[in-house]
Fold this protein.
Amino acid sequence: MDNQEQNSQFKSPKNKLIKFFQISRNKWKQKYKELKKYSKYLINKIRFLEASKAKWKKESKELEKILKAKEKELQQLKEEKSHSQAKALEKKNLKCTL
């Protein structure tokens, strides 16, 4: 009797319920298939961006080293120039005193 009481609760025919559940299942599968595809896209994008970031970071460090070397070279040239100007001034002063 218990089984008959349960069957009397459901008023929809079984074939309609089966079709409804199949459609529901197919929608669920499609939804998660799209989410999985989007997740894979995001993972690949992150991987690409991390590689790009590493590349630009490496290039930036190399350029910073070059910049520091050029600044050091410029400073040395300025010092040499000031030394040569000081020597020229000394020579000029010596000539004036003679």
User: Anything to note?
Assistant: The chain is about 95% helix and 0% strand. Helices lie at 2-9, 14-97.
